[in-house]
Structures are given as C-alpha cells and as structure tokens.
Amino acid sequence: MNKRNWITALIVIAALVAGWRFGQGRSTKDSTTQANAATPTPTARASTLIAAPGRVEPISEEIKINAEISGRLRAVLVEEGQAIQRGQTIALLEDNDYRARLASAQAMLQQKEAELRRVANGARGQERREAAAAIIEAEAVVANAQTEYDRRDGLYRTGDIPREEVERAQRQLNVAQARAAAVKERHSFVDAPAREEDLARAEAEIALAKARIAEARAMLDKTVIRSPLNGTVLRKHLKTGESALGATMGSPQPIVTLADTSRLRVRVDVDEADIGKLAMGQSAYVRADAYGTQRFSGTVVRIGEILGKKNVRTDEPTEKVDTKILETLVELEPGSQLKPGLRVDAFIETSQ
Fold it and tell me: How many whole angstroms separate alpha carbon 228 and alpha carbon 336?
C-alpha cells in the first residue's frame, strides 16, 4: 500500500472515532436530561456561617464583691480557684467598734423599758400610803382649828376676849383648810393612773431604742462579707490586714471576684452586616487558638436590642474599629473547659 492510501485510511479511522465519541456524549446528555425531566430536584437550603469574635464569660458574669462599710480586713478566708457556696463567709472586717455600739444600744433599751414601767405603775405603795396619811393628819389639823375658832368665837360673843383673838383663830383655820386641800391634791396625783401622753412618750422612746439596736446589729452584720451565689473565686484582690473601702465610697476596690462557672457562654460581636441572619436558637460553635481545631458547641440564647461599639478586638492590622456590632450571647454546652475571659472565634450557623 502506497503512502497516499495510508493517509486516506488514517483519516477515515479518525472520522469514525470522532463520530462514535460524539454519539456517546449526546446519548449521555440526553439520558441526563430525561432523568432530570422525570425527577424534579427540590429546592436546596444552603447553610452559611456568621463568623465573629467573642469572649468567654461565666453564666453569671463576673461579680466583684465589695465591703458595704469601710474597715480593716481581719481575715480573707478564700483563695483563687476555690469553689464556694451561697452564704459562705468570704472575709471579716474588724468589728470592735460595731460591737460596742450594739451593746450601748441594748443598754439604752433597758433604761427606756424601766422608765415605761415606772410611768405605767405610777407611785410606789409607800408613797401612796404616805399621801393618805397626810390627808388624815391635815383633816385632824382642820378639825382642831375649827374647834379652836368656835371656842374663841363663843368667848368673843360673851365679851371675854377681844375680836383680834377670833380673827387669829379664823386665819389659823383657813391655813389648815388650805393645807388639807393641798395634801388631798398630792394624794390624788400620787394615786392617779399614768397619763396617756406619758405612756405614749415612754413607748416611743422604747421604739427608738429598738431601732437603734437594729441599726447597730445591721452594721455589725456588714463586717461579715458573704458570697451571694454558688461559684468560684476568680481573683483575690485584697489580703488580710489591708483596708477595704465601703460601697458608699467613690471607687471601692473589690475584695474578690466571683462567678458561677458551672455553665459558660460567649459574648459575640456580630457585625451589623450580618444581624439580619440572626435568630434565637441557632446552632453555633467556637474555636480558640489554644485548643487548635477543637470545636465547642453552643446555642444562641440572646440577641441584643441595640447596636454598639466592638467589645473584642482581633488585633489584626486590617480590622475596622468603627464598625457597629450587635451583642449576641451563645450558651455553650455543659462540660466546655474554656477559661473565662478567653478570646475565641465564634461561628453561628444560619440557613438561607
């Protein structure tokens, strides 16, 4: 076979192969088209992620415990990392002054109660009997003066004595009668029941004394600083012997920082461009550089109501600092061993 025939044969073979391939491709395309026409594909739901920085915090947030009153710390009874119970004593302040105030208020109450009993009981029995005896004596004096006056008046009428003697007897009788009246008033005063206003005043003084006791006891109780919750001591700020400023001061220094770390959550700064995709109950997870690729799952439990400034900075040179964010809380599943304050990357799963 010459060279020309060889070339012709190769061209024919190539044309046959190309035709076969074209037929196979068209057949496959037709089959696919028919299959798609026969079985409609449902609309797919594309899952997307909202990525945002966040910071781990306890479920109770961090609680700084201050003293309500100023004083020197007699003892700080907890250490960092210690688990404590609600009502457990955290620290004690020096309390000698407050104990003395309480004792003084209690003594004042006893004095006021004694005064009330005196007012209610009135005069003593001896005073009552003395006043009654004074009446008998005064009446006897009056009777004697009356007898003397009558005798002298009779003598004057018979001309045996001058008028001056009768007038003297009359004056003595008047004095005796006046003294008898005064003695009777004294007896009435001693024997009378207590006046309503005296009782009311004595009772008011007792109420005031009790209020002062309650105040002194409340101040004494404030020298004992107790935990308001079950949690863990995150930071111990003051030690035994240092001075604690009361809560009424301008900027009191906390004694300790507590938190309930039994559950953790992440406060996420969601960019304002992504807030339309947020919804309560969305699944989420966080990652931290310290834990590599490990994921910590959680759920969106709160979405903020107002936009604000960023809380978490990523320290990236290209980070925008003037972007508004919406605070969103993601509650992590129990058992997440992250540390409060750790910066993490949060990813919230959404569906479009």
Answer: 24
CB 54 within 8 A of CB 269: yes
pTM of the model: 0.59
* Lowest mean pLDDT, pick from 45-54, 168-177, 273-282: 45-54
| C-alpha closest to that of 90 among 214, 235, 260, 215 | 235
φ, ψ (nearest 5 deg) of residue 202: -65, -40
In the DSSP assignment, the letter for residue 67 is B
The pair of three-digit structure tokens given for residue 1, joined into one six-digit string: 């076979």
The one-letter amino acid at 11: I
Phi, psi of 338 (to 5 degrees): -95, 155
Residue found by looking up tokens 């001309």 in the block:
159
Judged by average pLDDT, the poorest of 23-37, 213-227, 265-279 is: 23-37
Q: Are 70 and 243 in contact (CB under 8 A)?
A: yes
Top-confidence residue, 134 or 229: 229
Q: Is 300 exposed, middle or buried (0-12, 13-18, 19+ CB in 10 A)?
A: buried
The residues near 297 (Cβ < 8 Å, ≥ 6 apart) are 283, 284, 285, 332, 333
CB-based contact 69:246 (threshold 8 Å): yes
Residues 298/285, Cβ–Cβ less than 8 Å = yes
Its sign, for the CA torsion 215, 216, 218, 222, is: positive
Phi-psi region of 292 (alpha: psi -120 to 50; beta: other; left: phi over 0): left
5 band by pLDDT with thresholds 50, 70 and 90: low
Report DSSP state, residue 80: T
Q: Name residue 255's amino acid.
A: I
Positive or negative CA dihedral for 299, 303, 307, 310?
negative
CA-to-CA distance for 90 and 104, rounded, in angstroms? 28
